[in-house]
Structures are given as structure tokens and as C-alpha cells.
Amino acid sequence: MSEDFTNDSDYGTPSVGKATIGSSIVIKGEISGSEDLVIEGTLEGSVNLGENTVTVGGTAKVAANITARKIRVQGEVCGDLFGKEVVFVESTGKVLGNITSPRLSLEEGARLKGAIDTDPSGSGERVAVSVPVRKQNASQQAQSNGATTAAQQPVNGLNGDQPQQEKSL
Hints:
The protein is mostly beta strands. It is built from one helix and twelve strands; from the N terminus they run E-E-E-E-E-E-E-E-E-E-E-E-H. Strands 1, 2, 3, 4, 5, 6, 7, 8, 9, 10, 11 and 12 form a twelve-stranded parallel beta sheet that branches. The radius of gyration is 28 Å and the shape is elongated. The model is unreliable at 6-14 (pLDDT under 50).
């Protein structure tokens, strides 16, 4: 399941531009801005492009927390991902960190080691579920009280046990 990251008209926000960190580039530090970013190189630090798209390309090795509107992972990320709309981890993608986003797509073959939170509002609201209570018959009540029925009694000889002989005093 792949989404076109170049056409943002579906979301009403036109893409301003696209920056690329090439495969031979190494960056240490904080990246922020107002355009889409494609990372093919090595990055250590943090990425904050809250209203834009970050693509971690297939050759990328990223050790950073990433915050963006959309995040697409084809390479390796060691850090937490915060997608305001969606996070895609493609079949070649590897994520070692937590993902927080209202929508998440993991393609077959994608690797993820971390927690997933699809409620980024943090409301933590629990949904109440009502379960109908079924009345128990006498046999079920006896079982729940620890009593065993004749059908539950072990039978000697069935499990390789030798029948016990009665002893008299």
C-alpha cells in the first residue's frame, strides 16, 4: 500500500519544495524547515518538519526523532516517529523506536521494534464494553467453586497409571 507523496492536493496544503540529503552526505544536528525532505544519507540528531513530508530513502541511516505531517520509511531509522497524519514503513524499512500517528501502514517485510500509538491526542480514553452475564447451571457453579464432577475425576489406567489396589486396615 503506497501513497503518492508528491501530490498533497488531497490534504489542501500545496508542497513548497523538496530538499534532498544525498547518499554520501553525513549530517549531525537539528533539521527544521517548511519543505519536504528526502534523506538518502546519514543523519544524527532530530528532524522537525511538522507540516511537511519526510522520506527516509532506501540507503538512509537515520539516528533521530522525526516529526512531520507524513513520514515514509524505506531505509533505517533509530528514533521515534511522530506523524501528524500518517506513517508508512515500506517493505525495506526498519524502525527501532516508537511510532505515534493516527494512521500507520506497515508493508509486508517491514521491521519495527517499538511501541505503536494511534491515539496521538493522548486522551487515553478507555472504551467501556458491556458483557452480558450468563447464569450458571449447578454443574458450572460447582466447577467454579472448585468442586469436580464425576466426568472430571481422573480415571486410573488411562494415562499409563496402574490402578491402585484397595488396602484394608
